[in-house]
């Protein structure tokens, strides 16, 4: 019968060290002899775990002169002594493991919710722009869904939903962090992912499922090594939810889309272009229809390097650009990124005004 041996304080460590020294063993060799991991060996040495009787038997067989250490054994304990409830023995007796693991996940989520609630009560966070649009009865979930469909993602692994938004712009970073903070019961994270791009993320199953009620999917391109035909046979993202939004929400979704993934350009020759980058054929078509309802007429651009060959919505008509400005233009404070050769750091709305003024009324 296997027991766990409790030695007099300090003697278990002495036993193992002498065994290692006499036999000139490395840590790896010791672990191989006893078929254990390094952490188990260190626990034996630190006397955080008792030595199994079979391990002591192996020591004596290999090094008989250490047999006299049996006089330091003060107790023989059952083999499962010290094992906490819910450990391997309990799990082996559970009939429905799936039900049990679901229960554990639920308890873990409840703890996360409680911890997040306590932490949130101590955090004071404000954003004047977001607070002002809330007063206008704007649906923040529709804003979030729009931003994810332009420059974000919703990844689902099992029953885990992770909502992410990516931006280099400080204004958008602050707004989107506040929106996620308001909508989720959990506290979002904000970290630099690559170069100057910041990722704002939160893992929230409930919010993720609510977003899927707006768009059935947020996957905007094929997975790595996935055929385009295979991807297009999957459930596709959609902007149809905007048709159910109130007018204030719908207009703000247009403004956010252009602010997150749109641009305004003016060449030295006076040529101008308002663009909404969108490589997904269906989403591009949806945007054209929505924009057209506000007098913003664009056409589907082509881009060979995109997965679909679609480059997004391109607008060259000055009256359409004026109509975009009447809606409010870009979100105030959003700047042109480093992708622009001549206008980096300039506020997008400032360049929008210059384009309109240059072409006259």
Q: What share of the residues lie within helices?
A: 40-55%
Average pLDDT number: 88
CATH superfamily of the largest domain: Homing endonucleases
At the first level of CATH, the class of the largest domain is Alpha Beta
Structural class: alpha+beta
Largest sheet: 4 strands, antiparallel
In CATH, the architecture of the largest domain is Roll
The number of distinct helices, counting runs of at least 4 residues, comes to: 15
Which overall shape is indicated by the principal axes computed on the Cα atoms? elongated
- Assembly classification: single chain
The CA-CA distance between the termini, in Å, is 96 Å
The number of strands is 11
Summarize this, please?
The protein has four domains: 3-78, 434 Repressor (Amino-terminal Domain); 88-122; 128-226, Endonuclease I-creI (Roll); 240-359, Homing endonucleases (Endonuclease I-creI, Roll). It has helices at residues 11-23, 27-34, 38-45, 53-62, 88-92, 97-122, 128-134, 140-151, 170-183, 205-212, 228-232, 247-261, 281-292, 318-326, 348-359; strands at 3-7, 51-52, 73-78, 152-157, 160-167, 189-194, 197-203, 262-266, 272-276, 299-302, 310-315. The protein has 15 helices and eleven strands.
């Amino acid at each position: 019968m296997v027991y766990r041996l409790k030695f007099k304080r300090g003697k278990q460590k002495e036993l193992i060290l002498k065994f290692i020294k006499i036999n000139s063993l490395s840590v790896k060799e010791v672990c191989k002899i006893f078929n254990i991991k390094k952490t188990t060996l260190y626990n034996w040495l630190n006397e955080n775990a008792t030595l199994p009787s079979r391990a002591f038997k192996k020591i004596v067989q290999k090094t008989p002169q250490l047999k006299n250490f049996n006089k330091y054994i003060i107790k023989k304990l059952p083999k499962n002594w010290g094992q906490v409830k819910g450990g391997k023995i309990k799990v082996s007796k559970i009939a429905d493991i799936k039900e049990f693991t679901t229960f554990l996940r639920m308890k873990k989520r409840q703890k996360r919710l409680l911890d997040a609630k306590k932490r949130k009560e101590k955090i004071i966070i404000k954003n004047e722009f977001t607070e002002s649009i809330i007063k206008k009865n704007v649906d923040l979930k529709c804003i979030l869904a729009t931003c994810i469909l332009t420059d974000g993602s919703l990844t689902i692994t099992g029953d885990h939903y992770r909502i992410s938004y990516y931006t280099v712009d400080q204004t958008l970073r602050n707004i989107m962090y506040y929106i996620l903070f308001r909508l989720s019961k959990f506290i979002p994270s904000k970290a630099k992912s690559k170069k100057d791009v910041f990722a704002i993320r939160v893992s929230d199953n409930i919010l993720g499922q609510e977003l899927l009620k707006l768009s059935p999917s947020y996957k905007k391109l094929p997975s790595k090594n996935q055929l385009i035909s295979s991807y297009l046979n999957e459930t596709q993202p959609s902007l149809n939810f905007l048709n159910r939004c109130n007018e204030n929400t719908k207009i703000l979704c247009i403004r956010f889309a252009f602010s997150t993934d749109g641009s305004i350009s003016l060449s030295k020759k006076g040529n101008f272009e308002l663009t909404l980058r969108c490589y997904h054929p269906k989403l591009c078509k949806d945007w054209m229809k929505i924009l057209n309802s506000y007098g913003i007429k664009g056409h589907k651009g082509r881009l060979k390097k995109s997965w679909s060959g679609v480059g997004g919505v391109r607008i060259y008509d000055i009256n359409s650009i004026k109509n975009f400005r009447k809606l409010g233009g870009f979100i105030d404070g959003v700047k042109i990124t480093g992708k622009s050769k001549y206008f980096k750091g300039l506020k997008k709305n400032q360049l929008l005004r210059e384009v309109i003024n240059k072409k006259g009324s």
